[in-house]
Amino acid sequence: MTNEEQNAFMSEHYAEAIRYMDNAKETLRKTEKQDHGWYKDVKYVRSACGIAYLGVLVALDAWLTLKGVEIPKKKKHATIDFYLYHIAQLDKKMLDRLDTVYNILHIEGYYRRERNVKTIENGFKIAYEIVEKIKPENPVDVPETRGDRAKRLWNQLIISVAVMFRF
To answer: Which of 7, 92, 105, 128 could bridge to 53 as Cys pair (CB 3.0-4.6 Å)?
Structure first.
């Protein structure tokens, strides 16, 4: 892969990962912080943690691809063990970050319904550190395809309806 192709690849995946992180932050803003350091509505916290974790996986897929690791196709989904194994061989700091993000955002935030503001904010901070690892030096504009635009608009509609009816 030439430098130009690599830069375009990283720009596309970085933009996608940031889009996930922006959506996660927007979802988290829908709940109030209570005086004693807890988020009020666990539904939004869980959603935000799940979305942020998926953004991290987008970034990791791109990072691993550039390192020469083949990402499993859809029928053989990559598990956390896949990521931990390959990242352990490449970068111990990245492994620590992934372990923390996995535990805070995926396990505690999404599955165990953690609502502590400091804990969730720390998970988001480390998630951004992972995403920033794939930030291209010379980003190129990634045009939105018609399919991506339709998908984005459809997701916005679904979220609006869900919030309106409090699903």
So the answer is: 105
